[in-house]
Amino acid sequence: MTIQVELARLLDSLPAMVWTALPDGHVNFINRRWLEYVGQPAEEARRWDWEALIHPDYVSAVVADWRSIVASGQRGEIEALLRRFDGQYRAADLFAMSKDGSRDGVP
């Protein structure tokens, strides 16, 4: 079993929604809880459509904040209204961290 498969199994077992994206925004991993919460098939969720899950009044600010975090290479947090499987929007904290694991000085 490869490290990627083991990591995917671990992330699927977490009681949290987890997804990862490349610097250009294309999603390259989504755990089961994320898919259950948003009600999207995995193929649809892997496209650059994650911003469609953010409340329309806030999507441009959320995307701009995410891009700023990616560009800085630092850890960041974004508050957003995320659409659930039933169409209701709920508050969510989105956390971003660079691929190298830097945490902006946090141990």
Write structural notes for this entry:
Helix content is 34%, strand content 21%. A two-stranded antiparallel sheet has the order 1-2. A two-stranded antiparallel sheet has the order 3-4. The protein is of the alpha+beta class and 107 residues long. The chain has one domain (3-96): Beta-Lactamase. The chain has helices spanning 3-13, 32-38, 42-45, 59-72; strands spanning 19-21, 27-30, 76-83, 89-96. It is globular and about 45 Å long. A hairpin with a 5-residue loop joins strand 1 (19-21) and strand 2. It starts with a helix and ends in an 11-residue tail after the last strand.
Structural key phrases:
107 residues, alpha+beta, Beta-Lactamase, two-stranded antiparallel ribbon, 4 helices
Write the layout of secondary structure elements.
Layout: H1 3-13, E1 19-21, E2 27-30, H2 32-38, H3 42-45, H4 59-72, E3 76-83, E4 89-96
Antiparallel strand pairs: 1-2, 3-4
